[in-house]
Design brief:
The structure holds 2 protein chains of 2 kinds. Chain A is an alpha+beta fold. Helix content of chain A is about 25%, strand content about 35%. Chain B contains 13 helices and 2 strands, in the order ααββααααααααααα. Classes of the chains: A alpha+beta, B mainly alpha.
């Protein structure tokens, strides 16, 4: 696939605060790319640099091989779906969608034809004369998408476009956006802090933190093979435990040596071990590799989420078995349930559920409003 | 339960409103009734429509440039002249105010505050004093002509006594009323809309024409209303800066009042009020129908 956007060694600071730190990223044609990370990780700034609304302090931006650092937004083949849609309140649905075509002096008949086709695609036929302020959030969202796509951009930038929608609508729109991307073949660059959204929609996920890219990969790569504790923790739930790689295929942690599938570490290298909560098997203590005491059980619908104290380290386990609080249980791990990561600056910061609560988790990740 | 608490709020709301209601009745409604009463009565307070008729039918002779005389309807002419000068002043105000309001709205918050203050400061002075200031600036022996005369040996420009001077005075006096409403709308405008327009292919001028200007229309309309209405009925500016050559409808009311023709003065004021009401209603109707944001006012 052809590279459509290349960011080379981009740095950007606002008021002396570094937002992007020597970041490089290639985006290929016809891809659905998601920039994923917590508030202030620089994902929105990256998007704005591609859109032309910010210029990098250092580094270059290339569009199909051509440097576009100084090209203003209105001359880029890029369109944006803004976070709160930014529809023009003085125009009706038709005129909002036709806005870009009117600027290009397209004939009236062609505008009418294209707008109607576009409104049909986003399932808003018959809404032409409606005022945008009278539409629901989901409908406004569709108008914003139609308004951007009608210009046939090479790239569509989407800045947390689903953030303001309720859960059900958001799921529907995820499917729809994915479908639109496939049908049009336009490169989508999607910004979100919602990891589930990223996993379900993207071809490629770019995980960012503190102005740096932590990992680029397919959703399965990112989930199954996180490169460090930050990624493992941000994407889904993870138990992250200190371990020693004794040799290839052998890792020791929590006082037990496990078989694993990982190779390429030096003998006795300290590592981070990632175990996803759903990959842990609960067995009778006598058959177990590790034993622990259940400290809490939370019913989540499809499964129970339990916290188990294993030698002072608290694991999160998701299981469909029913487990009693205070029960003494055994844990068994298949080799493919264990993922080994090199130590990083994030080691020890994540993956321990000692102080875990759903509520705190939400407080720590409030929906970001305007990230600059 | 719910009703009683709603009623309670409603009552306290009315109590809070009472001083303003009394004020409005005493100083707005009652005087208006007096004006109407005087307009339709003669010196013995007997009902008459003569004062109204006089406004539309009184004639006088004016001298044409070629020395011939022409009969005109005095007060209709004066009214149309007032309307013309007020309209020109309003347009000039708008043309001058819009760019300044726009620049202010894009400036840093601190600069914005300073600029608002600078625009408001002249309003702290009485408008008679401001008008006198313009006289000393513009007259033949005034500041501008003295400087031009001394530096370049130019003959004085005669500005006092021209329409230009009257318009200048009105523009100067009413300028803040045009800038501030436009500025407040522009300052509140969502910057994302401007980004969206750029994103969709608009250059700077196009953004202004297609997004910023239409969205600022409510401010423009209130600016126009706040400049046009008072400048139609203005007086004194025309006497001082126009050298008395451009007798305006406000001057007519004043002179009739001074001449103790209270009933006719009231009749002119009454007619002027009706015309302004009709104009405002028309403006409101047009903006509601054709201008974005017009219906929210």
């Amino acid at each position: 696939m052809e590279k459509i956007i290349e960011l080379k060694n981009i740095s950007k600071a606002f008021d002396g605060e570094t937002v992007l730190d020597n970041m490089s990223l290639d985006i290929h044609d016809n891809e659905f790319v998601t920039l994923l990370g917590p508030s202030g990780c620089g994902k929105t700034t990256t998007l704005r640099i591609i859109g032309g609304f910010e210029s990098p302090d250092e580094g270059d931006v290339f569009f199909m091989g051509e440097k576009i650092n100084d090209v203003p937004p209105h001359k880029r083949h890029v369109n944006t779906v803004f976070q709160k849609y930014a529809l023009f309140p003085h125009l009706n649905v038709f005129d909002n969608v036709a806005f870009g075509l009117r600027e290009q002096k397209v004939s009236k008949e062609e505008i009418k034809e294209k707008v109607e086709k576009m409104l049909k695609m986003v399932m808003l036929s018959g809404f032409e004369k409606r005022r945008v302020t009278s539409l629901s959030g989901g409908q406004q969202q569709r108008v914003a998408i139609a308004r951007a796509l009608i210009n046939e951009p090479k790239i569509l930038l989407l800045d947390e476009p689903l953030g303001a929608l309720d859960l059900k609508l958001r799921k529907d729109m995820q499917q729809e956006l994915k479908k639109i991307q496939k049908n049009t073949g336009i490169t989508f660059i999607f910004v979100t802090h919602d990891q589930e959204e990223a996993l379900s929609m993207s071809d490629t996920i770019v995980v960012m933190s503190e102005g740096k890219i932590q990992q680029i990969g397919t959703p399965t790569d990112i989930y199954n093979e996180p490169v460090n504790a930050f990624v493992a923790d941000f994407i889904g739930e993870s138990n992250i435990i200190d371990g020693i790689m004794q040799s290839d295929y052998k890792v020791k942690f929590s006082g037990h040596t496990f078989d694993c599938l990982d190779t390429g570490f030096s003998p006795n290298e300290p590592v981070d071990v990632v175990i996803r909560p759903e990959d842990v098997d609960i067995v009778a203590p006598e058959k177990a590799m590790l034993c622990g005491d259940v400290t809490s059980v939370t019913f989540m619908g499809v499964h129970n989420e339990i916290i188990v104290d294993v030698n002072g380290f608290k694991w999160m386990i998701q299981t469909t078995d029913s487990v009693e609080e205070n029960a003494h249980i055994g844990i068994s791990l298949d080799p493919d349930a264990i993922h080994i990561m090199k130590k990083s600056k994030f080691s020890g910061m994540f993956g321990d559920y000692s102080s875990y609560s759903n509520e705190l988790e939400e407080l720590a990740n409030p929906d970001e409003e305007d990230e600059e | 339960m719910k009703n009683s608490s709603a009623l309670k709020t409603h009552n306290s709301y009315r109590a809070a409103l009472a001083p303003y209601s009394i004020w409005s009745v005493l100083f707005v409604i009652v005087p208006l009734i007096f004006i109407a009463f005087y307009a339709f009565t003669d010196n013995n307070f007997a009902f008459t429509t003569d004062n109204i008729t006089r406004f539309f039918t009184a004639t006088s002779n004016i001298l044409n440039d070629d020395g011939t005389t022409k009969e005109v309807r005095t007060y209709v002419l004066i009214f149309l002249r007032s309307l013309k000068l007020a309209a020109i002043s309003t347009v000039v105000c708008l043309i001058l105010a819009y760019p300044i309001a726009y620049i202010m709205s894009r400036a840093k918050p601190k600069t914005q505050k300073t600029m608002v203050t600078l625009i408001m400061i002249p309003m702290w002075m009485n408008f008679l004093i401001r008008t006198y200031a313009w006289m000393t600036i513009l007259q033949d022996s005034g500041i501008i002509n003295t400087i031009l005369g001394n530096l370049f040996g130019l003959e004085p420009f005669h500005v006092i006594g021209t329409e230009t001077a009257v318009i200048l005075g009105m523009v100067y006096d009413y300028f803040p009323y045009m800038v501030l409403p436009i500025y407040s709308i522009l300052a509140k405008m969502d910057g994302k809309l401007i980004e969206a327009a750029k994103d969709l292919g608009c250059g700077s001028f196009s953004v202004l024409r297609r997004v910023i200007f239409p969205l600022s229309m409510p401010g423009v309309i209130s600016g126009i209303t706040m400049v046009l209405i008072p400048s139609i009925s203005t007086f004194y500016i025309s006497q001082k800066l126009g050298n008395g050559k451009f007798f305006l409808i406000g001057d007519a009311i004043e002179s009739q009042y001074i001449a103790n023709n209270l009933h006719f003065a009231a009749a002119i004021a009454f007619i002027l009020m009706i015309i302004l009401l009709v104009m405002m209603a028309l403006l409101k109707y047009l903006t509601t129908r054709f201008v974005y944001g017009g219906d929210s006012r």
